[in-house]
Amino acid sequence: MNLNTNFEPAGNIYQQARIAHWDSIARKLDQWRGMGQWYHKRLEEIYCFLVSPGLSVLEIGCSDGNLLAALKPSRGIGVDFSSEMIRRAKERHPELEFIHADAHDLSEIKETFDVIILSDLVNDLWDVQRVLEQLQPLCTERTRIILNFYSRLWQTPLNVARSLNLATSNLYQNWLTREDMNVLLLLAGLEPIRNTQEVLWPLPLGSLANRFIVRFWPFHHLAISNFMIARTVAKPVKEPGVSIIIPARNESGNIKAIFERTPQMGRETELVFVEGHSKDDTYEAIKREIASHPSTPSLLLQQTGIGKADAVRLGFSKAKGEVLMILDADLTVPPEDLPRFYDALVSGKGEFINGVRLVYPMEKEAMQTLNFFGNKFFSLAFSWMLGQSIKDTLCGTKVLWKRDYERIAANRSYFGDFDPFGDYDLIFGAAKLNLKIIDLPIRYRERTYGSTNISRWKHGLLLMRMVAFAARRIKFT
Q1: Counting Cβ atoms within 10 Å, is residue 75 exposed (0-12), middle (13-18) or buried (19+)?
Q2: What's the CA gap between 396 and 383, in Å, rounded?
Q3: Cα(286)–Cα(299) distance, integer angstroms
Q4: Which of 11, 364, 438, 457 is paired with 230 by a 20 to 30 Å CA distance?
Q5: Are 420 and 312 in contact (CB under 8 A)?
């Protein structure tokens, strides 16, 4: 691989000094580990949560390859400009591929990856933007770029530790803020998705501090490492097929309006009705309207299980479209709003489009006061827990790609299967996959037929249990 990065003279001197420095560190690490082993162990735990096993992974600045190996990739490639580090990585992890190259010139790598990692690298680079730009040809629209870098607050403590030979020595560095990195990612054509602050106590007995205390204000400001997840700026997709899943229980009076008011989107718009043990004639009403609208692609299914989540999953499993939408049959979210969800998804602005009822004023009887404040509470809890804005967790209208839903379903066991509505199941799953979640405000309407199927207290307590459970699996890992 090419180590000639065509820098100006100052840049060449900078890089050569660092190559020599990290070669010497590699030799030193054969007999000495310092106090950084607990810090690196915690980094491995975080990356193992963020990156599922079996993916293709590229690590830029891979050092001795231990982090890459811990992720158990289906294909793992590590790149480092230190020949000594690469030699040791090849010896320790022969199942992986290691390449001697400079991060500023990755032109000889001719494949794409599911995940690209830059761990504690950007603070040591001559030109951060140039390195980030090198990642573009290595990405697909599904690739996630994960990087972590030291907080400037730790500059003095780290310098003291290095002077005492307790931590790996470094030459002078870039001390970048999260705001700096957000700008550099955008300049390189990459889009930040979310960021967290990690590792409050990089020493023994740090589990309580690093898993729990660091999640709360003001302690997260004291963390040593900033983590950021980004993606390439997605390109619009042309004319995918759309499947609208419509769970319908005791909604006979709304079926005709659904056919009349639902707009056409994409290559074809399919209506998938899932009737759920109705006490009125909902099933017969759907059959009548399907017969009356032969030009509308439609499918009618009957639930054998119970609950909206079960109905949605049945509908998703039978849907033909590449885009999956959920529309509640009560029409409190107008079908006329669906094209805005479609546009947000296919334009690449988001990968999981979440309807929000709490921005615009509602019609008078659309939501009871206690329900409103309950939804506000859950929105704050989710935004804190997931690191992305989630202003409304229980709006029935959600839109995503079928390929992403299939990944969420495959990993459902991670969170369990006790969500009766399916909203939390989808949001948790999207966050675990590091999807870009977009809140889309809609005007919430009053019901014109029937009554709600939600029990405020029974289901509210269940949702609280789900939040507590998910916090353990997402926030306090």
Answers
A1: middle
A2: 18
A3: 9
A4: 11
A5: no
* Terminal-residue alpha carbon distance, the chain: 38
pLDDT tens sequence across 18-52:
999 999 999 998 888 788 899 999 999 999 999 99
Catalogue all structural domains in the chain, each as residue range(s) with its CATH number.
9-232 (3.40.50.150), 242-474 (3.90.550.10)
Side chain identity, residue 113: F
CB 352 within 8 A of CB 437: yes
| Residue 86 near residue 99, CB atoms below 8 Å | yes
> What is 164-205 written as a DSSP string?
TTSS----S-----HHHHHHHHHHTTEEEEEEEEE-S--SSS
- Name, in order, each residue with C-beta under 8 angstroms of 217's C-beta and a sequence gap of 6 or more: none
C-alpha span between 416 and 394 (Å, rounded):
18
Single out the residue of 113, 117, 123, 124 nearest to residue 146, CA to CA. Answer: 117
Specify the pLDDT at position 364.
57
| CA separation for the pair 262, 336 (Å, rounded) | 6
Residues 387-424 have pLDDT tens digits of 888 888 888 899 999 999 999 999 888 877 766 677 88
Per-residue pLDDT, 425:
87
Dihedral sign, CA of 212, 200, 196, 105?
negative
- Quick check: bond before 218 cis, omega within 30? yes
Phi, psi of 92 (to 5 degrees): -80, -30
> Does residue 2 surpass a pLDDT of 70?
no
Q: Is 307 left (phi over 0), alpha (psi -120 to 50) or beta?
A: left
d(Cα 72, Cα 37) in Å, to the nearest integer? Answer: 20
**Mean pLDDT within 105-122:** 96
d(CA 415, CA 474): 9
pLDDT of residue 414: 81
Residue 145 clears pLDDT 70, i.e. is over it: yes
Considering the chain, what percentage of its residues have pLDDT values greater than 90?
A: 71
The answer to whether residue 297 scores a pLDDT higher than 90 is: yes
- Contacts of residue 185, defined as CB under 8 A and 6 or more positions apart, other chains included, come to 132, 191, 192, 228, 230
Q: What is the pLDDT of residue 375?
A: 72
Rounded distance, CA 82 to CA 86, Å?
6
Tens-digit pLDDT profile for residues 241-273 = 999 999 999 999 999 999 999 999 999 999 999
The helix or strand, by DSSP H or E, that contains position 221, with its residue range, turns out to be none
358 residue type, one letter: L
Residue 78's φ and ψ, nearest 5 degrees, are -115, 140
